[in-house]
TrEMBL record:
Pfam families: ATP-synt_D (PF01813). InterPro entries: V_ATPase_D (IPR002699). This is Putative ATP synthase subunit d. The lineage of its organism: Eukaryota, Viridiplantae, Streptophyta, Embryophyta, Tracheophyta. One of its GO terms (molecular function) is proton-transporting ATPase activity, rotational mechanism.
């Protein structure tokens, strides 16, 4: 870069020396529109739009007769040197703009990463811890109520079993009592029948 700019400066000095100081007026009079132009476009690199500059020539140069009196060769060499310098400057501008854009994108990404690590991640971890704690508490409550319901069912089964056993014992006692009553009644009937027969006996 430095060598190219140095060469273009020397070429301009040589052209002025060979063609005289008035050569710049001749160049300005002969040139109305720029033949070397720069346009920009965008390239997408990893989601980042980078501006790119590129030069192009448009139209014919009208400086063929510039320096015809004297110093024409030095003028053409000076023009070629400055065209080369413009090419390098355009490429340098493109690279520098890309570097600045990428640097800004990297800084923005770093800020987002820091925000995620220092703000969002702790919040999510706290939320996860809270949800886990609530789930553990619900699990303990469910376990407590399950044990309580199991205890209630166990007591209810024991009560029903005891009631059924008591009912069966009562039925058994009633049955035994009924059988005893039937036996006593039968015995009483037999005695009564025996006594009646004895009255009919004649000695």
């Amino acid at each position: 870069m430095g060598e190219i700019m140095k060469a273009s400066s020397f070429a301009l000095t040589e052209a002025k020396y060979a063609a005289g100081e008035n050569i710049k007026h001749s160049v300005l009079e002969n040139v109305h529109d720029a033949s070397l132009k720069v346009r920009s476009r965008q390239e997408n690199v990893a989601g980042v739009k980078l501006p790119k500059f590129e030069y192009f020539t448009e139209g014919d140069t009208k400086n063929a007769l510039t320096g015809l009196a004297r110093g024409g060769q030095q003028v053409q060499q000076c023009r070629a040197a400055y065209v080369k310098a413009i090419e390098v400057l355009v490429e340098l501008a493109s690279l520098q703009t890309s570097f600045l854009t990428l640097d800004e994108a990297i800084k923005t990404t770093n800020r987002r990463v820091n925000a995620l690590e220092n703000v969002v991640k702790p919040r999510l971890e706290n939320t996860i811890s809270y949800i886990k704690g609530e789930l553990d508490e619900l699990e303990r409550e469910d376990f407590f109520w399950l044990k309580k319901i199991q205890g209630y069912k166990k007591r209810e089964i024991e009560r029903q079993t005891a009631a059924a056993k008591e009912f069966a014992e009562e039925k058994f006692v009633e049955k035994v009592s009924l059988q005893k009553a039937i036996s006593l009644n039968s015995a009483h009937n037999l005695l009564s029948a025996g006594m009646e027969k004895d009255e009919d006996i004649i000695f």
